[in-house]
Amino acid sequence: MKRLEGWKLKLLSFAGRATLIQSVALNLPVYTMSSCKCKEEERGKFLTFVGTLFDTIWFSRNAVFFRGNQANVMSARHKMLHKIEEFISVHGNSQDCNELHQFSREKVWCVPNEVHGFFVTDASWKEGRAGIAVGYQDRQSGKWLWSARAMEADSAMEAEALAVFWALQLGSECGFSSIAVASDALLLVQSLNARKLPPCWKSRAAN
Questions:
Q1: 191 close to 197: Cβ distance less than 8 angstroms
Q2: Under 8 Å between Cβ of 24 and 14
Q3: Any transmembrane segments, and where (predicted)?
Q4: What are the b/e assignments for 62-72, b being 16+ CB within 10 Å?
């Protein structure tokens, strides 16, 4: 598969938003950044920068595609730097920084060490068409791959479910002994964990 295949699809939404990137990456094994010999505080700042960078690029890209705005690199750069300063100042000025960090680590879901393939999914939906994206990591080799496609779907919920199903298919094709899938579709995740059919977002909107 080609990395970032489907980047120009207007229906595609970002599969690794800033909050997801930071919360998941902070809980990956330390060896993933061992070559950098970074302290935990520095790793946090680096991941904040990467997450904010991706978030800014994706927001600007959607503004051009969906709202017809003109791309303004300097404005996007200013907003990105402002966000980074806000994130760092919040953590730096907190009197209970250690307690806050401990709380966040306890509440954030951690990828189990025994998981072979880790997947991140996302989807967008409009007027019967969906853009779905899957990013995945072979946790033994550390290799990341991303892919996306456009397909038909009757609702946003179905689009999110198709992305998760695609992740399961890729996990089987890659021969992973075990996988974990992260999705920002809370209702879908709760339904799957409870082994129930997820509610239809299209029906909810109609009501």
A1: yes
A2: no
A3: none
A4: beeeeeeeeee
Residues 170 and 136 sit within 8 Å (Cβ to Cβ): yes
In whole angstroms, give the CA distance from residue 87 to residue 68: 29
Fold of 117-194: Nucleotidyltransferase; domain 5 (3.30.420)
Measured distance between the N- and C-terminal CA atoms of the chain, rounded to whole angstroms: 40
User: Could you tell me the residue ranges of all domains in the chain?
Assistant: 14-92, 117-194
Question: What does the pLDDT look like over 63-75, one tens digit per residue?
Answer: 776 677 777 777 8
Q: Which two tokens stand for residue 2?
A: 């080609």
CA dihedral 198, 201, 202, 204 (to 10 degrees): 110
